[in-house]
Amino acid sequence: MKNRLINELLFIKYNKGVTLEDLKLQFKIQRATVQGDIKQLKNVGWVDFFGPPKSGKYMLTNKGEKIFNTDY
Asked: How far apart are the C-alpha atoms of 54 and 23, rounded to whole Å?
């Protein structure tokens, strides 16, 4: 997995949800890149969009939260 995707997941987790614009600004990437990254994260079930279209945020799903709760 790309380091950027891991960093995006961490950013989403610690901010308890973000917008596409938040990701774009934080990682200094194009909107299309952010959209592609979110699509990948949604496809594996780690992230989903919650809330109304204009004010909702991308947040970790239960499955996404579990990747951070792994015992080593």
From this structure: 16
What is the extent of the structural domain holding 22? 3-66
Angle formed at CA 33 by CA 23 and CA 5, multiple of 5 degrees: 60
In a domain, 72, yes or no: no
Query: Both ends of the chain: CA-CA distance in Å?
Result: 19
Q: pLDDT by residue (tens digit) across 37-66?
A: 999 999 999 999 999 999 999 999 999 999
Supply the CATH number for residue 55's domain.
Answer: 1.10.10.10
Structure token digits, residue 17: 């949800």
